[in-house]
Automatic annotation (TrEMBL), chain A:
Protein name: ATP synthase subunit a
Keywords linked to the UniProt accession: ATP synthesis, CF(0), Hydrogen ion transport, Ion transport, Membrane, Mitochondrion, Mitochondrion inner membrane, Transmembrane, Transmembrane helix, Transport
CDD domains: ATP-synt_Fo_a_6
Lineage: Eukaryota, Metazoa, Chordata, Craniata, Vertebrata
Location(s), subcellular: Mitochondrion inner membrane
Automatic annotation (TrEMBL), chain B:
Protein name: ATP synthase F(0) complex subunit f, mitochondrial
Keywords on record: Acetylation, ATP synthesis, CF(0), Hydrogen ion transport, Ion transport, Membrane, Mitochondrion, Mitochondrion inner membrane, Phosphoprotein, Transmembrane, Transmembrane helix, Transport
Family statement drawn from the similarity comment of this UniProt entry: Belongs to the ATPase F chain family.
Binding partners and assembly: Component of the ATP synthase complex composed at least of ATP5F1A/subunit alpha, ATP5F1B/subunit beta, ATP5MC1/subunit c (homooctomer), MT-ATP6/subunit a, MT-ATP8/subunit 8, ATP5ME/subunit e, ATP5MF/subunit f, ATP5MG/subunit g, ATP5MK/subunit k, ATP5MJ/subunit j, ATP5F1C/subunit gamma, ATP5F1D/subunit delta, ATP5F1E/subunit epsilon, ATP5PF/subunit F6, ATP5PB/subunit b, ATP5PD/subunit d, ATP5PO/subunit OSCP.
Organism per entry: Pygoscelis papua (Gentoo penguin)
One Pfam family, short name: WRW
PANTHER family, per database record: ATP SYNTHASE F CHAIN, MITOCHONDRIAL-RELATED, ATP SYNTHASE SUBUNIT F, MITOCHONDRIAL
Length: 227, 79
């Protein structure tokens, strides 16, 4: 019975047909392409408004070179946001609970920022490995520490997203099981029901996961691409 | 006195019950045809519920409710 708690993270299959691609492409249905009218429908208006505010927020600390990343960063934001929020609906499958998908997103993008920095301004990028004003005896150790922290960034990015979402989903399932199991014993259920509501709102923090994800990506981006 | 429309091009609601198997067999099941049918269905839904002046919460809620139902059907064997 305990093992069935992880079944919700199994990649979905139906009659032997893998559905993972469908569940990853479903968010595209929810974003209709905006037409050329001045006043579009309400859905497009809301989506365009949120897209614009996210883009402005993301691109504010970047210099002109960094604005080239606007498209990929905002589309990544919208993708992760939608996938995480859709995963909160009952019976749905969340692709971002799979470490494979998150690493596939985190690793190439981090590598791109690293290589851009090393290619365009190598001394500045390497100079980031040593913070200013360190005492001379500490320099070798600190360089190794900074290199480690640099190399662990993609792992941290991917695992952070996976762990947060998986933990949230597991908790929801556990607490729901507890409520249904305790239903014959009435008074405890009401307290547990409020805690599940609480947990669901805390799960809206999955939305904050997007902030965390793209912000950290952005952080490493302008750290290496700044003038 | 209705114009003689070939069976292949008639709409589904106009097809008589006896003609249904013939009608189904004559539909376009190539990948391009299926894509066209999906595109037409999507456009119909979009223009009726979302691309309107005062579209409400119902347009996208129906999509999400349908997604939940389909996910339930897909995961039924695991439950």
């Amino acid at each position: 019975m305990n093992l069935s708690f992880f079944d919700q993270f199994a990649s979905p299959y139906f009659l032997g047909i893998p559905l993972i691609l469908l569940s990853m492409l479903f968010p595209t249905l929810l974003f209709p392409t905006p037409n050329n009218r001045w006043i579009t429908n309400r859905l497009s208006t809301i989506q365009l408004w949120s897209l614009h505010s996210i883009t402005k927020q993301l691109m504010a600390p970047l210099n002109k070179e960094g604005h080239k990343w606007a498209l990929i960063l905002t589309s990544l934001t919208m993708l992760l946001l939608t996938i995480n929020l859709l995963g909160l609906l009952p019976y749905t499958f969340t692709p971002t609970t799979q470490l494979s998908m998150n690493m596939a997103l985190a690793f190439p993008l981090w590598l791109a920022t690293l290589l851009t920095g090393l290619r365009n301004q190598p001394s500045i990028s390497l100079g980031h490995l040593l913070p200013e004003g360190t005492p001379t005896p500490l320099i070798p150790a600190l360089i190794m520490i900074e290199t480690t922290s640099l190399l662990i960034r993609p792992l941290a990015l991917g695992v952070r997203l996976t762990a947060n979402l998986t933990a949230g989903h597991l908790l929801i399932q556990l607490i729901s099981t507890a409520i249904t199991a305790l239903l014959p014993i009435m008074p405890t259920v009401s307290i547990l029901t409020t805690s599940i509501l609480f947990l669901l709102t805390i799960l809206e923090v999955a939305v904050a996961m997007i902030q965390a994800y793209v912000f950290v990506l952005l952080l490493s981006l302008y750290l290496q691409e700044n003038i | 006195l209705c114009a003689a429309v070939p069976l292949k091009d008639m709409k589904l609601l106009d097809v008589k019950l006896g003609q249904l198997p013939t009608w189904l067999a004559m539909r376009d099941f190539t990948p391009g045809g299926i894509l066209g049918a999906l595109r037409r269905g999507y456009d119909r839904y979009y223009n009726k519920y979302i691309n309107v002046k005062k579209g409400g919460l119902g347009g996208i809620s129906m999509v999400l409710a349908g997604y939940v139902v389909v996910s339930y059907i897909w995961s039924y064997s695991h439950l």
